Amino acid sequence: QVQLVESGGGGLVQPGGSLRLSCAASGSISSISTMGWYRQAPGKQRELVVLINIAGSTNYADSVKGRFIITRDNAKNTVFLQMNSLKPEDTAVYYCNARISGLWYWGQGTQVTVSS
User: Fold this and answer.
1) CA-CA-CA-CA torsion for 45, 83, 111, 31, nearest 10 degrees?
2) What is the Cα–Cα distance from 113 to 89, expressed in whole angstroms?
3) What pLDDT band is residue 9 in, cutting at 50, 70 and 90?
């Protein structure tokens, strides 16, 4: 059984502030190719935030380029999302996503709220 466990969200952040999300994969894992984050705002479809492959290549959504940074610790099967210069439009539930042993998995989601 593979699980993705997210942490770091759940609070209120002021515009311009920063927040760091983490996602750790656990269970029967032979290989993780791609890890990343999606988000879903109220009334909107889930959208890509950023993905990182095992070689470290990244794919950022235009809306977060220059503000968000994804990093990955392959030894710990963990991915991090450093979010800087947060805006109210970044408010959403953020979901960790990973391709593990050829299958895609999702985390349970963590709320990020940006408001003054």
Assistant:
1) 80
2) 9
3) confident
